[in-house]
Amino acid sequence: MKPRPRSAARKPPEPSESHAEIEDWSRRVMPDLQPLVRCLDDLTCETIPGLHYAVKWKRAYYGLAELGWIIELAAYDVSVNVVFFGGAEFDSPPPLGSSGQARYVKVKTLEEARSPDVRNWIEQAGRRQGWR
Fold this sequence. Notes:
The longest helix is centred in the first third of the chain and has 14 residues, at 34-47. This protein has helices spanning 20-28, 34-47, 110-113, 116-125, and strands at 52-56, 59-64, 68-75, 80-84, 103-107. By secondary structure, it is of the alpha+beta class. The protein has a 5-stranded antiparallel beta sheet with strand order 1-2-3-4-5.
């Protein structure tokens, strides 16, 4: 298996104002993870107005024109990783990730998805520089 290129070498996704691509992606993730993905998507869209969307590398991206891509959702077998591209700058950063500015959290349950920490990180993502 070929190693995935580093973020610095990858070209960011093309943004769209349409949420349809995210909806299509969420229907294609593992059935057990679909409620988690929908919950995280709803929370992100409700919390941050004016989002742009994209799907690339089987991941969903949320961004703002002035900040770049701020959140990535990556659905795996038993969890959804929520990556915050500016997470290292958060008041209380997500627990995972140690290089660059990105930090993430693994979400395995709806309770975790609805936690105050996740909501707080999403709110902070809307105010921090992301990936361009």
